[in-house]
């Protein structure tokens, strides 16, 4: 909002992407943006910061979310950034942001001190499209180099703490290490992960979520999945760091262009990076081997000889079905879409109750329809 003196109000947004980078990057961005605001006679009334947060994410950036709330509430006139990619590195997202800014009467300015136009954003989006793969390769190379030198990019595993003043370095947390040993002993002794998790919750033992996400509701109890790790087995039982080994680049995340969902895939063995750090060992080798044997036996018993669950084919959520866009829910009258696939591949259409007349207690099951009567889509 413009002040009585007709001086435009502005806020600054700054971000850097990795915890392996220096926090001084934020200070440099803020200093530069303050100078830009001063040259353009802007009254800076706030600053939003995200440290060690990727530009490809939105929900995980608290500063970014507060900035968006300010834009929607029209609390300022201008957003100043060093580069547009500080807001987002995703071309579609930065285009959408510009539209949100325009809708709320908020302008965007970078270090050149010029208000962004649709053409500027289009050029920035094209540049990001070209630059993103190059940046990903540079980040990957930097992470690989850090791991080769015994450092661990990203978050720290349960049982460890970051070494102060040494990015990527880990030290053993003695209290959590005792819990890790307890989990391995009970699991190797035949107890189920659900029983172990229930006991830890009942005893009030701090969980991985409680120690790292204290401000997030629902993170104060133990979930059995954090012990076994689900499909890819990356839980506590399968973490090789507990035997003093850093296993890096074992899997990659790729985006399915049809479902727009991220999927993990195992990389070829020659791309794996394994670094031994014996000082980080928590679990004795004998206990580790016994736990892995129990895990393997249970997997074969549950999923068959391969020991791995079979993933069903997922029907793309697109508009290829002849009824797409024309179905409406009998409860809320809302538009329906193909939301899931049944075991035999038949699509399921669903809608959320969106009108005030629909009772809040209406069960979700009531708004499923055509579950088995709609024929599966034929692949082209």
From TrEMBL:
<dbReference type="InterPro" id="IPR011109">
    <property type="entry name" value="DNA_bind_recombinase_dom"/>
</dbReference>
<dbReference type="Pfam" id="PF07508">
    <property type="entry name" value="Recombinase"/>
</dbReference>
<dbReference type="InterPro" id="IPR006119">
    <property type="entry name" value="Resolv_N"/>
</dbReference>
<feature type="domain" description="Recombinase">
    <location>
        <begin position="157"/>
        <end position="301"/>
    </location>
</feature>
<protein>
    <submittedName>
        <fullName>Recombinase family protein</fullName>
    </submittedName>
</protein>
<dbReference type="InterPro" id="IPR038109">
    <property type="entry name" value="DNA_bind_recomb_sf"/>
</dbReference>
<dbReference type="InterPro" id="IPR050639">
    <property type="entry name" value="SSR_resolvase"/>
</dbReference>
<dbReference type="InterPro" id="IPR036162">
    <property type="entry name" value="Resolvase-like_N_sf"/>
</dbReference>
<dbReference type="Pfam" id="PF00239">
    <property type="entry name" value="Resolvase"/>
</dbReference>
């Amino acid at each position: 909002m413009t002040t009585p003196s007709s001086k435009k109000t502005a806020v600054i947004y700054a971000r850097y992407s990795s915890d392996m980078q220096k926090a001084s990057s934020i200070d440099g961005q803020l200093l530069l943006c303050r100078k830009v605001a001063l040259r353009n006679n802007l009254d800076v009334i706030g600053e939003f910061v995200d440290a060690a947060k990727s530009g490809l994410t939105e929900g995980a950036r608290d500063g970014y979310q507060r900035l968006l709330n300010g834009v929607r509430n029209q609390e300022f006139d201008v957003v100043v950034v060093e580069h547009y990619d500080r807001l987002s590195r995703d071309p579609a997202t930065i285009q959408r942001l510009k539209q949100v800014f325009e809708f709320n009467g908020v302008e965007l300015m970078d270090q050149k001190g010029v208000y962004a136009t649709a053409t500027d954003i289009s050029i920035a989006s094209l540049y990001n499209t070209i630059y993103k793969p190059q940046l990903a390769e540079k980040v990957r190379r930097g992470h690989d180099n850090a791991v080769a030198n015994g450092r661990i990019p990203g978050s720290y595993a349960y049982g460890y703490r970051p070494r102060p003043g040494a990015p990527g370095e880990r030290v053993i947390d003695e209290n959590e290490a005792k819990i890790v040993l307890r989990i391995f002993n009970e699991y190797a002794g035949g107890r189920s992960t659900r029983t172990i998790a229930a006991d830890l919750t009942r005893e009030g033992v701090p969980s991985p979520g409680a120690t790292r996400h204290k401000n997030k509701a629902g993170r104060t109890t133990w979930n059995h999945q954090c012990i076994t790790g689900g499909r890819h087995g990356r839980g506590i039982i399968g973490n090789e760091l507990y035997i003093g080994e850093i296993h890096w680049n074992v899997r990659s995340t790729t985006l399915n262009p049809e479902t727009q969902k991220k999927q993990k895939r195992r990389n070829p063995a020659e791309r794996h990076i394994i670094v031994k750090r014996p000082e980080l060992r928590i679990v004795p080798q004998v206990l580790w081997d016994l736990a892995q044997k129990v895990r393997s036996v249970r997997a074969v018993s549950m999923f068959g000889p391969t020991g791995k669950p079979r993933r069903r084919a997922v029907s793309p959520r697109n508009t290829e079905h002849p009824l797409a866009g024309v179905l409406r829910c009998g409860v809320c009258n809302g538009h329906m879409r193909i939301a899931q696939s049944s075991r035999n591949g038949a699509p399921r259409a669903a809608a959320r109750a969106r009108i005030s007349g629909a009772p809040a207690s209406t069960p979700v099951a009531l708004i499923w329809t055509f579950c088995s009567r709609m024929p599966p889509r034929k692949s082209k």
